[in-house]
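Q: I'm building a small set of examples for a reading group on sequence design. Run inverse folding on the following structure and report the sequence directly after it, with nothing in between.
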């Protein structure tokens, strides 16, 4: 007689956390032959049968490996019961094993990290991104809640159920250009399992910051002998923006009507474009504009005060091309004859003039006050000896190098009644008859 299976189908629910070697069920069969002829042999087949062991002699079904519901949630096995003497005599029973879920899988984010870029002028409430995670478990074990571990003082808001991230506070790239947020996904199983992921928010620059000068007022000195192209001063303006919005260009928009100066539009270096003349202009007040490359462009201004430093580039100039005077020969010592005057357009020591007699008075008959230029009698005059003097007067400044100029002074000595009649002979002899 062939074996007889007592049940056509077995159905069992197993937890995926069941340990290897655990008892599952027993396959029941009988053989109506006498005991010596009723020895049975049990065999197991079906998809996944390698995870179980059916005892050949007893028909007890046990697990031999760890089960994973996420890999295989149902097993359809067949238990074969054969007569040991006649292998072709057999019966079979179907075994259906349902694997119940255990919360053994943490949520898994769809990306290894999330990155998004936002313009710094977006409004509060703007959608930033949506994070998404899945859980291989089922039921409550796969329900996920999202939250921030670090949201930078609640700068961003997370929708716990959907994973939608929105902006909660205004952005300012000049204060912070990048936010590295940490997002957590937690399932609702017991015990709870979680995963984290980075969310990087890059703040894009907009042109919202005008260039700022390092100083609103610049001061520089420029000697009037500077050559064309000489650097006078450098202005500097920077922008808190980035990229083209931070590119700064310079120009002179005021105070340069005579085009004495030029500025490099990128470096901000102000150079001399035309020779300076202290005697014409002693100060220049330039208005410098810095404009960025953004759209629309933003600008700012600064003032540059350039003081021209006097150099000794002007010689003294006499008020007259020549001087002439007449004085009596009986003039007293110290009597003033005339005053020569010379002016110097320079300033300070460069414009201070001193006078001296350099020619025409070998015997020292005359003196000149070196500061005032007054020419006076220094020694007794005698028209009968010298009736005319031609003096060369030097006017020199006190600059470096010393500059000077000369002028001629013609002095005529007029007669004074200082000589009595003089007989041609001391004695005369005559004979009168």
């Amino acid at each position: 007689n062939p074996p007889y299976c007592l049940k056509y189908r077995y159905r069992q629910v197993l937890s995926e956390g069941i340990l290897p070697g655990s008892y599952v069920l027993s396959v029941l069969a009988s053989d109506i032959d006498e005991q010596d002829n009723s020895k049975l042999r049990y065999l197991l087949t079906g998809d996944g049968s390698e995870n179980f062991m059916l005892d050949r002699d007893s028909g007890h079904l046990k697990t031999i490996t760890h089960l994973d519901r996420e890999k295989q949630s149902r097993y359809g096995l067949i238990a074969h019961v054969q007569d040991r003497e006649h292998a072709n005599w057999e019966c079979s029973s179907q075994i259906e094993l349902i694997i119940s879920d255990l919360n053994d899988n943490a949520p898994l984010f769809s990306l290894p990290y999330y990155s998004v870029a936002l313009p710094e002028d977006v409004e509060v409430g703007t959608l930033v991104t949506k994070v998404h995670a899945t859980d291989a478990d089922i039921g409550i074990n796969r329900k996920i809640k999202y939250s921030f571990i670090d949201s930078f003082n609640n700068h961003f808001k997370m929708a716990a159920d959907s994973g939608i991230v929105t902006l909660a506070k205004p952005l300012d790239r000049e204060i912070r250009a990048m936010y590295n947020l940490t997002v957590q996904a937690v399932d609702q199983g017991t015990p709870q399992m979680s995963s984290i992921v980075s969310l990087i928010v890059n703040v894009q620059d907009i042109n919202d910051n005008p260039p700022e000068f390092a100083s609103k007022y610049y001061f520089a000195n420029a000697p009037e002998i500077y050559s064309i192209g000489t650097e006078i001063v450098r202005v500097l303006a920077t922008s808190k923006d980035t990229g083209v919005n931070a590119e700064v260009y310079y120009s002179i928009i005021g105070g340069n009507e005579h085009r004495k100066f030029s500025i490099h539009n990128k470096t901000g270096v102000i150079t001399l474009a035309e020779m300076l003349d202290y005697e014409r202009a002693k100060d220049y007040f330039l208005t410098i504009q810095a404009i960025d490359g953004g759209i629309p462009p933003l600008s700012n201004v600064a003032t540059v005060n350039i003081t021209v430093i006097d150099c000794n580039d002007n010689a003294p100039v006499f008020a007259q091309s020549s001087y002439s005077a007449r004085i009596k020969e009986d003039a007293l010592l110290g009597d003033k004859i005339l005053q020569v005057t010379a002016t110097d357009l320079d300033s300070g020591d460069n414009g201070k003039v001193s006078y001296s007699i350099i020619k025409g008075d070998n015997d020292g008959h005359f003196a000149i006050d070196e500061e005032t230029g007054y020419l006076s009698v220094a020694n007794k005059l005698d028209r009968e000896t010298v009736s005319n003097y031609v003096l060369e007067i030097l006017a020199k400044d006190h600059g470096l190098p010393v500059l000077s100029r000369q002028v001629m002074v013609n002095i005529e000595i007029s007669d004074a009644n200082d000589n009595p009649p003089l007989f041609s002979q001391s004695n005369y002899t005559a004979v009168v008859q």
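The CA atoms of residues 214 and 410 lie 64 Å apart.
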